[in-house]
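I have been asked to look over a protein record a colleague put together. Thanks in advance; the entry in question is below.
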Amino acid sequence: MEDWNRDFSPWEAAAVFGKEGFAGQGLKTLRWLTEECVPHIDRTFGVKDREHWLMGYSLAGLFALWAAYESDVFSGIVCCSGSLWFPDWDHYVRDHMIQSKCSVYLSLGGKEEKTKNKVMAAVGDRTRAQERLLQEDSMVESVVLEWNAGGHFADAGKRLAKGVKWMFGVKSGL
């Protein structure tokens, strides 16, 4: 993606840190992903009948989760340190449903909700609430919230790998 705040934000929102706001072009990114990228992968690698999982970290984690509410393409979502503090996310998830049967892995660093930024400090409560909503959603086959040591930028690659490992275990029945 060329511009993280533009391309992964589901709707426009004012800046919550720094000066750069969120342009809300997530739908454009989702359309590219579902209408061009996934079909290209399916054709090129002959995986049309396979499951498609989407994963992301931070704002891309929010985008991955949001994509499950907007599209029926994904059967697995990995949302690590997802920006669930995003303005109005709590209202959005109360008014929307996951679009296809899927499993969802959520993770957050234990220090993430301890920030001085009041908007971003909501991430812990919002992530716990998200887990509860997903547990009640009939389209969600399995959900877990895993807590990790450290803050937002600690071990991003390892956290994503843990999500993929969990997803393989859930999907293979192990």
Summary: The chain is about 45% helix and 20% strand.
